[in-house]
Amino acid sequence: MSEGPARKPAQKVIRPRVGNDRGVFRMGTSQIKRVGLGRPHWGDIYHWMLTLSWTHFFLLVGALYLVTNVAFALAFYLVPGSISNARPGYFPDAVFFSIETLATVGYGFMNPGSTYGHIVASTEILLGMVEVAAVTGLLFARFSRPTSRIMFSDVAVVTPFNGVPTLMLRTGNERGNLILEASVRATLIRRETTLEGQIFTRFYDLQLEREHSGVFALTWTILHKIDESSPFWGKSQEDLHNEGATLSVAVSGTDDTLNDFVHARQTYAAEHIFFNHHFADIMSDKLEGNVRILDYSKFHDIYPDGTAGGSMPGAALAHPG
Fold it and tell me: How many other C-beta atoms can be found within 10 angstroms of the C-beta atom of residue 169?
């Protein structure tokens, strides 16, 4: 008896990356720049320093160190006789003397040679102690700040689940520890037009199948059933795009190693939400010894459900009244 033609494997969908641009508040593909807030508040400089990348942070510290030493070196250099045993007119001697003074390492061959030199050196020592204390505190705060290694799938999908159209996305814990009392919140953000003709941005908190987990160890598939009460009801991907819709997801919990609160978030624009697709299975049924394999290389992979079109089953139904 003929077995018929072999079934072709499903094709993987090319998925857009969901990125975050520093310096810009980003929701999906929308980038928002705030204006009209007045001058920056100097009290926020500590917060700003904590938000810098490590590369920019060390570049800033290096620039501050260089500017301070050059400025005080000029103060010594412009008044001859300020530094004993320094070569006259040789600026590098003033720079090296400034470095020694700022670091309070003690003087060797060169030392302050006048009252003016002592005043400048004393001022630089005081400033050096303040700068060292500030940079040390910032380094400690940056290293001790709790961070998460929670990963999100690059895309979300809408697919039937137990006969009901369901929005799905994946999260995973990249660390080998546990996140205790984990919780997740998902919000749909979209533009709507009021009866008065005004464009208004609305936030809809999505009802999830499971919003809390006592232990988040490996992966967590977040599910939202799309029924008459869902803001996704009757929507297609084109509808979401026209409404400027953005799906925002936040996961939080207590890291059992750090014993501190950690969180992570991700946003999905309309083009990151694939209708009639499902995620690849990343849990192997085969055992290697007594161990199952969880393949994170397939974490972001999605496949078409085999239904035509770009809208979910039931998209032709009436919108909620």
Answer: 24
* Cα distance between residue 59 and residue 57, in whole Å: 5
Determine the residue type at 184. V
Q: For 14-22, which contacts have Cβ atoms below 8 Å and span 24 or more sequence positions? A: 15/154, 15/155, 15/272, 15/274, 15/300, 15/302, 16/154, 16/155, 16/271, 16/272, 17/154, 18/152, 18/154, 18/155, 18/266, 18/267, 18/268, 18/269, 18/272, 22/53
Q: What tokens does 157 get?
A: 């999908």
* Nearest-angstrom CA–CA distance, 167 and 160: 9
Q: What is the distance, to the nearest Å, from the Cα of residue 138 to the centroid of all Cα atoms in its chain? A: 20
Select the CATH number that applies to the domain covering 149-304 from these four: 3.10.50.40, 2.60.40.1400, 1.20.1250.20, 3.40.50.2300. Answer: 2.60.40.1400
| pLDDT tens-digit readout, 191-216 | 888 888 888 888 999 999 999 999 99
Indicate the CATH number for domain 42-144. Answer: 1.10.287.70
Cβ count near 291 (within 10 Å) = 8
Block residue for tokens 């394999």? 293
Phi-psi region at 33: left, alpha or beta (left = phi > 0; alpha = psi -120 to 50): beta
The one-letter amino acid at 289: G
Mind listing the pLDDT tens digit for each residue in 124-159? Answer: 999 999 999 999 999 998 888 888 889 999 999 999
